């Protein structure tokens, strides 16, 4: 199983980015998919997850970020709007099926 994340980059505060993560692996159909992030010097924190079509968000991104999933493509997306400087971090996608699988990180940098 492999998770491939993409979509990070540099954006000004108030801007938007869309992260994508595609999972590959024969018969792989995870129960949960989502995103963590890790800012410099900070611990990795859960940003958003989606399970059975139900999204969950951390308080810090609620109302600004939207997580969605395409089951046909085995992909998860994170639409990030109204970005803040404090959203700067490496974002990691993950998927859970009996265990947690991680994608490589994608860097999001929000400038003031």
What does this structure look like?
The protein is mainly beta and 112 residues long. The protein is 0% helix and 57% strand. The chain is globular and about 45 Å long. It starts with a strand and ends with a strand. The model has no long low-confidence stretch (mean pLDDT 96).
Q: What keywords describe this structure?
A:
112 residues; mainly beta; 4-stranded antiparallel β-sheet; 11 strands
The total count of strands amounts to 11
Radius of gyration: 13 Å
Secondary-structure content class: mainly beta
Strand content: over 45%
Distance between the termini: 38 Å
Shape: globular
The percentage helix is under 10%
**N to C succession of SSEs:** EEEEEEEEEEE
Largest sheet: 7 strands, mixed
Low-confidence stretches: none
Number of helices: 0
Provide the residue-averaged pLDDT: 96
What is the strand and helix layout of this fold?
Layout: E1 2-6, E2 9-12, E3 17-24, E4 32-38, E5 45-51, E6 54-57, E7 65-70, E8 75-80, E9 89-96, E10 100-102, E11 106-111
Parallel strand pairs: 2-11
Antiparallel strand pairs: 1-3, 3-8, 4-5, 4-9, 5-6, 7-8, 9-10, 9-11
Give a quick summary of the entry.
With 112 residues, the protein is mainly β.
